[in-house]
């Protein structure tokens, strides 16, 4: 199981809306922005928005503050800042272009099998 409960909630919410290629990066010691980045993509504008909406709903139900939500209307790259976890929901066409996994390549990948089953 993941150490961070917010990270676990985010990954499950993304998976519930069929977010694809979910990757979590441990940013501790790599960036001061957040402890974790979660990166995923949807195959359409509607799916990107559905993932972002589900994530917003789930974390708010748990009393977690959303510090910032950007890009929802355009649905190309939605950024959801949960404080120690920042979630990036890309449209599949944008994900390869920005390639955050490579940009933050020195951050260790978090094992998600315990969360996704």
Automatic annotation (TrEMBL):
InterPro entries: Iojap/RsfS/C7orf30, NT_sf. It is found in: Cytoplasm. SUPFAM superfamilies: Nucleotidyltransferase. Keywords: Cytoplasm, Repressor, Translation regulation. Pfam families: RsfS. One of its GO terms (cellular component) is cytoplasm. One of its GO terms (molecular function) is ribosomal large subunit binding. It comes from the Bacteria. Its main location: cytoplasm. GO terms for biological process: cytosolic ribosome assembly; negative regulation of ribosome biogenesis; negative regulation of translation. The keyword Phosphoprotein does not apply. Interacts with ribosomal protein uL14 (rplN). Belongs to the Iojap/RsfS family. HAMAP family: Iojap_RsfS (MF_01477). Functions as a ribosomal silencing factor. Interacts with ribosomal protein uL14 (rplN), blocking formation of intersubunit bridge B8. Prevents association of the 30S and 50S ribosomal subunits and the formation of functional ribosomes, thus repressing translation. This is Ribosomal silencing factor RsfS. The gene is rsfS.
